[in-house]
Design goal:
By secondary structure, this protein is mainly alpha-helical. It has 20 helices and six strands.
């Protein structure tokens, strides 16, 4: 008797049923086997000895349906990916340095330009303000114009803003320095959304999270240098002419480095490698360009409840970091008068510890793929770190502030690449630049609100009141993160998960076993055959 096996293989494109010609062949073989069973026991010696001939042995085999898993597209990793990552991280570093270089020495610039503290705070907040309306055309340009064009705009505008600052070193030219900082803030729009995109386009699935963390690391390192160098290069002295000279040195040095990095971007930054680095990228690159709609992509993201929850929770955490970074000098100097240099060093400690946290989190994600669990744990630890920093700030021990600031930075700054990568996972196959851009826009909005409110609370009621305000919002962020449904879509594509279901139907005899054969052909050409009743 013959048993026909029905095999269903669940791919991304749905159910693949048996073909009609296979069913017809099974019926013909069944008729042949019945006819062979009625023949007399005569024939060759092999037949008389009890060994059936080849035809009969073939007819006795169960009918099977064979499904071959198609060979995946070719992928390759190129050494050039490290050069692209290094150049991007470097000009992102300079952009972050220009963001924080004013606010970390607020007292110096208020005296030099003869303006109030809030005017200097706006030199930092303009980065956040400009980002929100420009992120939408910037992400559209990334999708329509490509990675190279976006990188050139980011690096070029960063260079232009740096040179404009060199023309603003006079007490009456605060408007020029504000214009220059605005140009740098526009450059930031074309920088902050790229880490996950650069990592996905150039790096393989086992290193993509580490690459994203490294790209974010460049921006964090720029903030760290921004906390460290300005207090050293521009000390708080009474001679305003010497202060102006020191500011010029800082501005011209930044402009020279920005120019070199723009030229490097022009020379080495390519759109994408010749072959994709991962199966997920191969799927995206094979997609028909006409099918892509930026508007529809945005709608898909806002319809995704997990992404909306991440959007809010990421904005709260990163906005809190922006607020603390902007107001750190004011918080420290209000309790520890004359400690501008140590305020910069505490900021450096906060960011350097966060850089270590970012790299560790990147390695951990590449190894475990536990995106939600890691994000939630780091969020909780950031909240605890903020509480400890808040209630130890006024202990009159600068050493304790260094320690608590380092702990806070390790988790709070380490969260940034986690949010990027988690967002890409739950929104695949939507553009990495679009999801990252929206996350950054949320961070800028919360950053502006938090900086204004915390700055007011710090001025009127002291640093503790402002920090408690941030703690309450971070607690809300923990709840929202816990509610996110973790669906790792990109990881599933890279893992090439194929679910197969087999259902056997006996034709005549209930005692015969069904047979299912699945041939899985790997890229190396190996073939594995699996049967329900035996293993070949």
């Amino acid at each position: 008797m013959v048993v026909t096996a029905k095999l269903g293989c669940q791919y991304q494109n749905g159910f693949v049923p048996p073909r009609e010609e296979e069913k017809a062949a099974a019926a013909e073989e069944e008729e042949e086997s019945d006819g062979m069973a009625q023949l007399p026991a005569t024939g060759t010696g092999e037949e008389r000895d009890g060994s059936p001939p080849d035809e009969e042995r073939q007819a006795m085999l169960p009918d099977v349906t064979v499904v071959t898993e198609p060979e995946g597209p070719q992928t390759r990793l190129y050494p050039q990916r490290f050069v692209v990552l290094a150049v991007f991280s470097s000009y992102s570093l300079v952009n972050a340095f220009q963001w924080i270089q004013y606010s970390i020495i607020t007292s110096v610039f208020t005296r030099f330009y003869q303006v109030t503290n809030d005017k200097i705070d706006w030199l930092s907040m303009v980065y956040m303000l400009v980002y929100v309306p420009l992120i939408f055309p910037a992400t559209w340009l990334l999708d329509a114009g490509g990675l190279r064009l976006t990188a050139l705009l980011g690096s070029g505008l960063n260079c232009l803003g740096a040179w404009l600052k060199c023309a603003s070193v006079r007490p009456s030219l605060f408007g020029v320095t504000m214009l220059a900082q605005t140009v740098c803030s526009v450059a930031q729009v074309f920088i902050l959304g790229l880490p996950s995109h650069v990592a996905s386009v150039w790096f393989g699935p086992k290193e993509v999270s580490t690459a994203c963390a490294t790209a974010v690391l460049g921006n964090q390192l720029g903030s760290a240098i921004g906390f460290l160098l300005p207090p050293v290069l521009v000390p708080n002295i009474d001679d305003m002419e010497l202060v102006g000279h020191n500011i010029s040195i800082m501005f011209y040095g930044t402009a020279a480095i920005s120019t070199v990095l723009f030229l490097l971007t022009l020379l080495v930054f390519k759109e994408k490698p010749m072959l994709p680095p991962s199966q997920a990228q191969a799927v995206l690159q094979r997609a028909v360009p006409q099918d892509y709609s930026y508007k529809q992509s945005m709608l898909n993201l806002f319809k995704s409840v997990p992404f909306v929850l991440l959007l809010i929770s990421y904005g709260i955490m990163t906005g809190s970091f922006y607020s603390v970074s902007t107001l750190l000098n004011q918080m420290i100097t209000e309790i520890y008068q004359g400690e501008e240099v140590n305020a910069g060093r505490i900021g450096l400690t906060l960011v350097v510890a966060g850089m270590v946290g970012s790299i560790i989190c990147g390695f951990w994600l590449d190894y475990t793929k536990t995106y939600k669990q890691t994000t939630l744990i780091v969020y909780i630890l950031s909240f605890i770190g903020m509480l400890v920093f808040t209630f130890t700030l006024d202990l009159k021990s600068i050493f304790v502030v260094f320690i608590t600031g380092g702990v806070l930075g390790f988790f709070m700054t380490g969260y940034l690449p986690l949010g990027f990568e988690f967002g890409v996972e739950i929104t695949y196959p939507e553009s990495e630049g679009t999801s990252s851009g929206l996350l950054n826009a949320s961070a800028q909005i919360f950053g502006i609100i938090f900086t204004l409110v915390q700055g007011t609370l710090t001025t009127k009621h002291g640093p503790k009141a402002g920090n408690i305000f941030l703690c309450s919002w971070m607690f809300l962020g923990i709840i929202l993160t816990a509610l996110i449904k973790s669906d790792l879509k990109r990881h599933n594509i890279n893992s090439r998960i194929v679910k197969c279901e087999a259902v056997a139907e006996p034709m005549e005899s209930p005692t015969e076993q069904s047979s299912v054969i699945l041939i899985n052909q790997s890229s190396a050409g190996d073939v594995a055959v699996d049967q329900s009743s035996s293993r070949v």
